[in-house]
Design brief:
Elements lengths: L7 H8 L13 H16 L6 E7 L9 E7 L12 H8 L3 E3 L18 E8 L5 E9 L7 H13 L6
Antiparallel strand pairs: 1-2, 1-5, 3-4, 4-5
Length: 165
Amino acid sequence: MAGYERDYEAIAARLTPAGGGAGGGAGGREQRMQAVVDALWDALAEQGVSWVGFYIDQPDEPDDRRLVIGPHRPSLACSPLALHGVCGQTLRFRISRIVDDTEKLGHDYIACDPRDRSEIAIPLIDEHDVCWGVLDLDSHDVGAFDETDEAGLVRVLQAAGLLGA
């Protein structure tokens, strides 16, 4: 990891109803995703995160157009995405992906920003066991994410009511 001390518990607390956020199922899914993006960006933009956003599955679309961009910061990214990239693999296999160095991925990396060097993607699985999307974070630093980030991001998504029980 690039040496960042990211306080995911504080971010999660911001998303609970007691913290003033739209967590715990309050508000619609889009509102909760936007709250997560805003909380993560506000807390992590100065800690090596260059982009944060959601990709939403469109199961009726062909595999090369399955993931469309949802709430995100700071700028627009690639959309739609095919299922061969990191986010697509996260959706298909329903497991988190931590990429230490995107240059080692070859054709499995979809470069929305050529400066990005590492990435973490978390599958969004609802209470009916349906994987409906992916939370994606990028960094310009090699090795910016690890299992601590994965656990912290899962905690944030749970606080926001975006993961099933």
